[in-house]
Automatic annotation (TrEMBL):
It catalyses: succinyl-CoA + glycine + H(+) = 5-aminolevulinate + CO2 + CoA. Homodimer. One of its GO terms (molecular function) is 5-aminolevulinate synthase activity. GO terms for biological process: protoporphyrinogen IX biosynthetic process. It is an enzyme of class 2 (transferase). Keywords: Acyltransferase, Heme biosynthesis, Pyridoxal phosphate, Transferase. Signal peptide: none annotated. Residues 49-391 form the Aminotransferase class I/classII large domain. Pathway: Porphyrin-containing compound metabolism; protoporphyrin-IX biosynthesis; 5-aminolevulinate from glycine: step 1/1. Its cofactor is pyridoxal 5'-phosphate. This is 5-aminolevulinate synthase. The lineage of its organism: Bacteria, Pseudomonadati, Pseudomonadota, Alphaproteobacteria, Rhodobacterales. It comes from Jannaschia faecimaris. Pfam families: Aminotran_1_2.
Length: 408
């Protein structure tokens, strides 16, 4: 008979042996004090820490307007939505949020999901149902949610080398010119912080008659004059057919969405199991997200401060000779290249310096490219940056790692 417990032990031990077993730590964010939090150790003791790896990029999870909107909705309607969007789960709060998102991206409509992962997976796996014979062209470094959606759709797929427009052209040119096509890519790739070649991809889409699908998860709220993302910043939103975004990063709440034509959103709404059979977001979350989106359409000062903090951190780390990966975005990866040392630095940052930054190991990134990924925000103050830089300087020397600039 199969020894299932032994099988589990073997699988988990393999992760420990490779130095990439992931541990969770218990932290408590405290309102008004972010990015400070309290870490509860295994022995029950508590330690004040500073969170440097969070996705609440602008601190909107603590913003008074967001909290007020959530309190009001909670008091008015109660906790849950009560069902799927098709069965009693569509409220005035969901409709208001979708209207804010459609306006943000200058699209006819938007469709809200429980997460951006689900939005990607559900939409990309549904498109072949809407366009029989569809071929999806997917960037090699697309997020796991996009890969999963493409994998599950049952249609043809082509993977082009990361940001390689020439390779994408080769693939497009090799296929039937009459076949329906969609090019799926990201505006900012979160592990390196590099930008997708949006204009060049749109040019190819026009030339070969393809739809464009862009994931703006790491850009919405932070780029563009109203925070609609890199496509807005570059004046290209009108050339994108489907925009995917999240409400759980810069907007500080929870959920994901697509913005597109009214017909596209209606079709996805009607055919995607990931939308049809999932209980909708709570009204309080929808209300908080709508308030956050509405506010960030006008708060350019917060976006500017965010970029300033990221630039300062990169400058300081580069000054120490640390191998940062810098493509000009707000994401600050520091290349370690060894899973054991990466976890060691992460553990010591937390225990010795009160700095919380999870290691990024395989399969999130390829083996040999393990890294620490810092996400500075407007609420990370200069003294916090000083503390992080000094801690990294100390631990880099302790681990005897090279001080050579990584390729940007």
């Amino acid at each position: 008979m199969t020894d299932y417990a032994a099988g589990l032990d073997k699988a988990l031990q393999a992760l420990h042996d490779e130095g990439r077993y992931r541990t969770f730590i218990d932290i408590e964010r405290r309102r008004g004090q972010f990015p400070h939090a309290v870490w509860t150790r295994d022995d029950g003791s508590e330690q004040e820490i500073t969170v440097w790896c969070g996705n609440d990029y602008l601190g909107m999870g603590q913003h008074p307007l967001v909290l007020s909107a959530m309190h009001e909705a909670l008091d008015a309607t109660g906790a849950g939505s009560g069902g799927t969007r098709n069965i009693s789960g569509t409220t005035v709060y969901h409709k208001a949020l979708e209207a804010e998102l459609a306006d943000l991206h200058a699209k006819e409509a938007a469709l809200v999901f429980t997460s951006a992962y689900i939005a990607n997976d559900a939409t990309l796996s549904t498109l072949p149902k809407l366009f029989p014979g569809l071929i999806i062209y997917s960037d090699a470094l697309n997020h796991a949610s996009m890969i999963e959606g493409v994998r599950r759709n049952g249609g043809a797929k082509r993977v082009f080398r990361h940001n390689d427009v020439a390779h994408l052209r080769e693939l497009l040119a090799a296929d039937d010119p009459d076949a329906p096509k969609v090019i799926a890519f990201e505006s900012i790739y979160s592990m390196d912080g590099d930008f997708g070649p949006i204009a060049e991809i749109c040019d190819l889409a026009d030339e070969f008659g393809a739809l464009t699908y862009i994931d703006e998860v790491h850009a919405v709220g932070m780029y563009g004059p109203r925070g609609a993302g890199v496509a807005e910043r570059d004046g290209l939103m009108h050339r994108i057919d489907i925009i995917n975004g999240t409400l759980a990063k810069a907007y500080g709440v929870m959920g994901g969405y697509i913005a597109a034509s009214a017909k596209m959103c209606d079709a996805v709404r009607s055919y995607a199991p990931g939308f049809i059979f999932t209980t909708s977001l709570t009204p309080s979350i929808a209300a908080g997200a709508a308030a956050s989106v509405r506010h960030l359409k006008t708060d350019q000062a917060l976006r500017d401060l965010h970029q300033d903090r990221a630039a300062v951190l990169k400058l300081r780390l580069r000054g120490l000779g640390l191998p940062i990966i810098d493509h000009g975005s707000h994401i600050v990866p520091v290349h370690v290249g060894d899973p054991v040392k990466c976890k060691m630095i992460s553990d010591r940052l937390l225990s010795d310096h009160g700095v919380y930054c999870q290691p990024i190991n395989f399969p999130t990134v390829p083996r040999g490219t393990e890294r620490l990924r810092f996400t500075p925000s407007p609420v990370h103050t200069p003294p916090m940056i000083d503390a992080l830089v000094h801690a990294m300087d100390d631990l880099w020397s302790h681990c005897a790692l090279n001080r050579a600039q990584a390729a940007g």
